[in-house]
Amino acid sequence: MKSQLKTIGLAGVAVFMAASLIVYPDQALEASIRGLNMWWEIVFPSLLPFFITAELLIGFGVVRFIGVLCEPIMRPIFKVPGVGSFVWVMGMASGYPSGAKLTARLREEKQLTKIEAERLVSFTNASNPLFIFGAVSIGFFHNPTLGLLLAVSHYVGNAIVGVIMRFYGGHEISTYRHERSLFSLRRAFEAMHETRLKDDRPFGRLFGDAVLSSIQTLLVVGGFIIIFSVLSKLLFLVGITEVLGAFLAILFGMAGLSGELSLPFISGLFEITLGSQMTSTSHATLQEQVMIVSFILGFNGFSIQAQVASILAETDIRFLPYFIARILHGVIASTLSFFFFQPLYVERQAFHQHETPVLNQTPLLTFEHWFHWIVQIGPLVTIGALAVGAWLLIYNRSNRNKPLS
């Protein structure tokens, strides 16, 4: 019976999508183009270098080196191996869904148990600083001072989620070899050398595989961004978003929040960029806007969650712990932004009013400069990378089909 209901539900969603696309073709096309622009201008060029570099670092054993060194830190705090530190840092630096991809990759390498991978993926998918400072703080709110408040709430909340998730799985009996808790550069180097020797691929092959794997992952990510951009628009056009928004406005009113935040909140549940932008233009107080944006960034949005689910589906890592962690992250980050609003925004804003504008905003405007620079060159990087990926596929297939001499 449960399987039949699932079949009916999935079929219903597919029929709804098809019918809505027929009724609203122009609006669906507009939403599709918006998602495509976001993917090839920002997501693809910003994530591709991180994905390729991560694959190379794993192949050369550098991640194993970091894992041995960080074992005494990551194991007691987060109950994951030391290699989790690499995934955590890369996830914060490059943004979603890097943490999921790297966790899945390390699971394939047998450097994580299933439970450890589920713990790790729950707190290593974060928004990158470029998006928080450049797009949200400066681009949407036009307020550089707000970036620090959003970033601290987001990343501290993420760390708290990691500490909470260490209790997930109970006292797991691991069949994998744990590193000794003592710090040792010699053991770290030996582990790195051993890992590199196990991967007997030459550098050219390793680099080519890294490029292909990264491009394939980002193509899937692009598909999810586009389809959820269209789905979010269709839900608004058929009135479902308004119905949910009216119900949510009542709940927000009971919680002391402005009812105007209900529609931006629902949009943010599907796609964080649109939700953050709509929140910044609402007539709610700035503190309420920050709390909603903090929740949206922590929740990741169904679009990113679908990307993560697609990546995890190729492994035995379950999606549910990640989803529960996203709710926790949203609630914790939103709560932190409420308590940090006074010291990290109000007091800093008053302090910076006595400084010169150049000294006040130069570091944060750097994020805006980089963000707009990526948007400008992003399409060229995406087209070039796709061309290289196509050439590598053709080259690999032609070599595979060559007869042995």
From TrEMBL:
Residues 43-138, 218-312 form the Nucleoside transporter/FeoB GTPase Gate domain. The chain crosses the membrane at residues 7-24, 44-69, 120-141, 147-168, 206-228, 234-254, 290-312, 319-341, 370-395. Keywords: Membrane, Transmembrane, Transmembrane helix. It comes from the Bacteria. This is Sporulation protein. NCBIfam families: spore_ylbJ. Pfam families: Gate. InterPro entries: Gate_dom, Spore_IM_YlbJ.
